[in-house]
Amino acid sequence: RQSCIESGTTVVITRNPEEPECNVCSADGPDPTCHATELTLTKSQNTSLEFSCPKPQDVFSVYIKKKIDCTETSCAGDIVQAESSLFPDFNRTFSWDLKVPATRAFRLDFPEPGMRQIPKGENCPDEHTYTIVTYLRSGPAIIGKYCKGGTVTTIQVRYKGRMLLNVPGDRKLEPLDFKLSVGPETDSKCCSVILERLSRKMSVSETDFVTANYPDSFPDDQQMMWNFIVPGMHNYTVRFRDHTAPECLNKEVMVKYEKEDKKVTQLTLTDPQPEHGQGNVNMSLFNCETNKTLQGLTLAFTVSVMRSGHPVLCTVDLTKKQGVSLQLEKVGADPYCEMSIDSVVKQKINVAMGTKASLSFLDCPNEDVRLTASKDIGKTFCIIGTLLTVPKLDSCLPMPLHSFTWLLSIPEHGTVDLESPTGSLRQSLPGQECNGSVSLHVAESDGFSIGDFCSKGIIRKVQVHANVSVTATGIDFAKKRGPFLNVSFSEEISDRIIYRVTPKMSDPALLATPNWPQGMKPSTTVSWIVTLSNRYRAAVQFLNVSQPKCGKSHTGIKVQTLGSKEEMFSRREDEKKEGELTVPESFYLNMSNCLPEEGHFGAVTKVVLEKKTNLLAIALGIAGALLFVLAVLAVVCYVTKKKKKGQMKTESSIYITKGNIFRPGDRHFSKARSDNDSHVYASIDETMVYGHLLPDSSYADSMEDRFNGMQVDSYQTFTGPSDRGLPVIVEPDADPDKDQYKAFLEPSETFIPSRPRTPIDRQDSLGFQDRRMVDNELYTFKSTGEINTIRLSGVDLEPEPPVDE
Which residues cross the membrane (predicted)? Predict the structure, then answer.
């Protein structure tokens, strides 16, 4: 075997006397040196060893010793014992002899999780046993044996001592990297100070300790101290498990407890020890000068630590909440907050769907624990749609719900459609952030972010051809539980994501690729279907386009109007084109990513609406305005001409009780045939007008006879009935200077009309009134009363002279 001895290290190979004889020989010089019981190696060079037995590891043990003297030089650093290739399968004992000035102590600091003291005869789980020895005037004393993983973080030993590490031959060396430093001034009577950092536990935590040299007697007239660091919100209790009291020749055995406020409590071995104390405490054991013919001082005790607060208990039942699970995580810096599930303390807790769990929160502020929940919807939503709402959680949970996530799974060859119940969505982008109370984060099942959305925007629908998750945050779920989105299925789409948007005239629309600004997924496409009104066109500008270095295929940007097969705009990553264009109608914007070797692909597109300018409409409007002016002039001329003609005519009228006065000269109604004589009546056949209303046919016959006698070529003014005994109503001539319409009724008589005013006195009026007459154009008779006949003949009147055209 060959190996190199480290400088400052001594290797001693010793044969177990109970084992068979075997020689070990060193072949460094020309003449090998053989030893039967022990061989010491000190040279820092390659060494060759020969053994006379086939399995020397069963016969010999190896001691690897190193001295560290800190009396004249400063000592600080890690102590690590490297594995020696010369003795990997031997029982090994590593030894460090430590020495500092007589008035000081050397300090050993152990990394987390620290060391644990064990009683004599107990073995460590990894079979790496550490032993610390102090050298007193009376001889060496074992302070204690320790294993990895415990509450002891620091040990201070006065003047000089030794640290040992025992490793069996069938174990690979896995040493503990502890630190060595020179400690403070110490009392000459103090042999060691042990620093215990007691751990925090939900229930009682017990740690066992023993005095130096246990189970042998503690050295006479010596002091040993334990410094217990008790975490906040914890109580400690000291209990003596076993002890022996010596016969003191000088002084007494004492136990002292010193608190942080310098308050000292002195007790004996038989006094009750502290219970439910709080804060850090130093415990010191003082021995007296004993009668060595009798048993000396020994002490074994336990320090228990328990929480002083009262936990908040909550039993969560998710068996009746289909697909719902809970997650709790410590996010605060409070070291005293502890939460557990089923009495197991954890930093993160997950309550699976369909299960029950007993939760406990001890000294946990609500803001230090983040509660999130999720619901796996799967494929339960349908084509009609499912509204995403937050179910009510168990009321015993002390902290508010931070966020809620819905997990959506699409069927084969399907697409998930996301729509806002309020009508539209808005993507959170620079300059258009979602500042409202609710924010919805949409991501694919692998965590790839699609974007953050809120309500009241331009996005009418988001279609994703993948399983997605929707997370609602930034809301008091105790007051608002939704609905937040309407989710439904649709047919499979060719793109990964499709946005359906309707821009507004008031604000420019920003369209960003998914996961902006990090970039799109490789080899995927995304599209926007932009719907425009017929009155608007769109100015499209590509504000920020990041192009990667493509390994396969190309990136692409395409713009195409809906219904057209030709592209208006197209650009790849290796092409340079203008980034602005005007689109006259609704269009389709498509972006595709390549398989990038370097960089990523992403873009932000700005869409601004502009009103269209219609030249044909303007021309038609001008032409229409000119035609309207000409028409107005023609009407004015026509009216003027007719007024002059009307002044030349003799106006007449007929009077009908409680009816309308019709005078032909007023010309209330325009004639479409004013240029010919088709409107001039030669005679009026009264039987054709009123005959069907009269039950007596003789009246119609008499009327027909009267009209057969005289033919005239113009309308004749009614002169009254043929009965000569009745007065004739003669209307006064119209004032030619007042050609205007005069209302028949005064405003005050509008709702209760009285008898119409006539130009004749009451005594000259007709002697009767036919009550069956009403105000209608045909003068329809009522069926009650007697009929008074009225002649509409112009026989007794002279015909008016013809009017010259």
Answer: 615-639
Q: In what order do the strands lie in the sheet with 344-346?
A: 312-317, 356-362, 338-341, 344-346
Measure the CA angle with vertex 607, ends 605 and 610; round to 5°: 160
User: What pLDDT score does 431 carry?
Assistant: 78
Q: For residue 618, what pLDDT is reported?
A: 59
CA distances from 230 to 109, 117, 207, 491 (A): 18, 18, 12, 64
**Token pair of 182, please?**
């020179």
- Which domains, ranges and CATH numbers included, belong to the chain? 310-490 (2.60.120.290), 494-612 (2.60.120.290), 649-805 (no CATH)
**Across-strand partners of 34?**
25
C-alpha dihedral, 623 to 626 to 627 to 633, nearest 10°: 180
Distance of alpha carbon 734 from alpha carbon 652, whole angstroms: 9
Least Cα distance to 243 among 296, 283, 193 occurs for 296
Q: Which of 255-259, 382-386, 567-571, 774-778 has the lowest mean pLDDT?
A: 774-778
Token representation of residue 772:
């069956």
- Greatest pairwise CA separation for the chain in angstroms: 183
Strands 104-109 and 115-118: unpaired
Query: Residue 227: how many CB atoms within 10 A of its CB?
Result: 18
Question: Which one, of 591, 586, 518, 592, lies nearest residue 552 by Cα?
Answer: 592
Q: How many C-alpha atoms does 552 have within 13 Å on its Cβ side?
A: 4
DSSP secondary structure letters along 119-172: -TT---TTS-EEEEEEEETTEEEEEEEEEESSSEEEEEEESEEEEEEEE-TTS-
Q: Is the pLDDT of residue 212 over 50?
A: yes
CA distances from 97 to 146, 164, 173, 174 (A): 17, 9, 20, 20
How far apart are alpha carbons 648 and 734 in whole angstroms? 11
Q: What type of residue is 650? A: T
Q: What is the DSSP code (8-state) at residue 56? A: G
Q: E strand or H helix at 647, and its extent? A: helix 615-647
- Which pLDDT score, from 0 to 100, does residue 592 have? 94
Residue 594 has pLDDT above 80, yes or no: yes
Residue 88 pLDDT greater than 80, yes or no: no
Assign 3-class secondary structure to 66-97: EEEECCCCCCEEEECCCCCCCCCCCEEEEEEE
Across 584-726, where does the E strand assignment appear?
587-592, 595-598, 602-611
CB 132 within 8 A of CB 116: no
Bond before 175 cis per omega within 30 degrees: no
Q: Tens digits of per-residue pLDDT, 689-735?
A: 554 555 444 444 444 444 444 444 444 444 444 444 445 545 455 44
Taken in order 217, 223, 224, 226, the sign of the CA dihedral is positive
* Cis geometry, peptide bond prior to residue 119 (ω within 30 degrees of 0): no
* Token reading at 91: 């029982």
The closest alpha carbon to 791, from 734, 714, 729, 741, belongs to 729
Q: How far is CA 112 from CA 70, 199, 226, 551, in A?
A: 25, 12, 19, 48
Q: Which of 213, 49, 195, 192 is nearest to 109 (CA)?
A: 195
Token digits of residue 228: 């217990």
pLDDT in tens, 490-511: 889 989 999 999 998 888 889 9
Residue 700: DSSP 8-state? H
Instruction: Please name which of 312, 331, 324, 389 lies closest in space to residue 350, comparing C-alpha atoms.
Output: 324
Pairing relation of β-strands 24-26 and 46-51?
antiparallel
Q: Confirm if 406 and 437 have CB atoms less than 8 A apart.
A: no
Residue pLDDT, tens place only, 506-542: 888 899 999 988 899 999 999 999 999 989 999 999 9
Q: For residues 275 and 202, is the Cβ–Cβ distance under 8 A?
A: no
Cis peptide before 113 (omega within 30 of 0): yes
pTM of the predicted structure, to 2 decimals: 0.51
Cis status, amide bond into 398, omega within 30 of 0? no
